[in-house]
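User: Let's play a game. I give you a shape written as tokens, and you guess the letters that built it. Ready? Here's round one.
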């Protein structure tokens, strides 16, 4: 997104709230560095993490259809973000329709990933959901790969518990299960695994994303 449309860049510490649930929606944020949680806060004081945002993601987009934010955006690590006012979308629609179409494609990709996750939550054991989460994070950061890969995941067991809807004790049991089965190796926040073996265990579907559809870039004279 053009720097002219963004507000001043902000550096925020870990655990900082970028926007809280219930805040008035004045725009979205572009994540330039670090990891961010999008979560809902429940009446009993617990939270459910809906998504882990990675560099390049747009934060808070679902709430642009609401007067007040439904999600809380919080820094999982040190982060750098830039606010984008809602008025910027009107400018993009008029001046950069292809970019707006690309943003639409990104939102549909996110919808597919959330649908996969919802299906997993309802129908697969927690260990498989954990494996699928590792794969999804790796695919988003580095793309699909073969052979052994390494992935730095700066999330605590409590964070994984909030993502998967289980307890941190259960996360610990899952880690021991995957380690003993040889599906992952782990040193603090660094995970090593074979994506193909982990995908087979998790049951996660292989998705091939269409990033540059023909209809988005019509031949000259066909626009």
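Assistant: Ready! My guess for every position:
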């Amino acid at each position: 997104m053009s720097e002219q449309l963004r507000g001043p860049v902000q550096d925020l510490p870990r655990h900082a709230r970028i926007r809280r649930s219930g805040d008035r929606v004045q725009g979205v944020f572009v994540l330039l560095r670090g990891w961010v949680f999008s979560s809902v806060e429940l009446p009993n004081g617990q939270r459910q993490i809906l998504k882990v945002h990675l560099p390049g993601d747009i934060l808070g987009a679902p709430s642009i259809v609401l007067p007040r934010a439904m999600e809380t955006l919080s820094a999982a690590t040190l982060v750098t973000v830039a606010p984008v006012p809602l008025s910027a979308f009107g400018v993009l629609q008029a001046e950069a329709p292809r970019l707006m179409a690309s943003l639409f494609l990104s939102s549909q990709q996110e919808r597919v990933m959330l649908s996969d996750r919802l299906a997993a939550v309802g129908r697969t054991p927690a260990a498989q959901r954990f494996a699928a989460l590792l794969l999804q994070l790796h695919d988003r950061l580095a793309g699909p790969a073969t052979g052994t890969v390494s992935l730095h995941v700066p999330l605590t067991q409590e964070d994984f518990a909030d993502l998967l809807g289980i307890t941190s004790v259960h996360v610990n049991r899952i880690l021991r299960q995957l380690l003993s089965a040889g599906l992952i190796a782990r040193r603090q926040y660094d995970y090593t695994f074979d994506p193909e073996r982990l995908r087979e265990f998790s049951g996660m579907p292989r998705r091939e994303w269409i990033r540059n559809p023909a209809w988005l870039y019509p031949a000259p004279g066909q626009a």
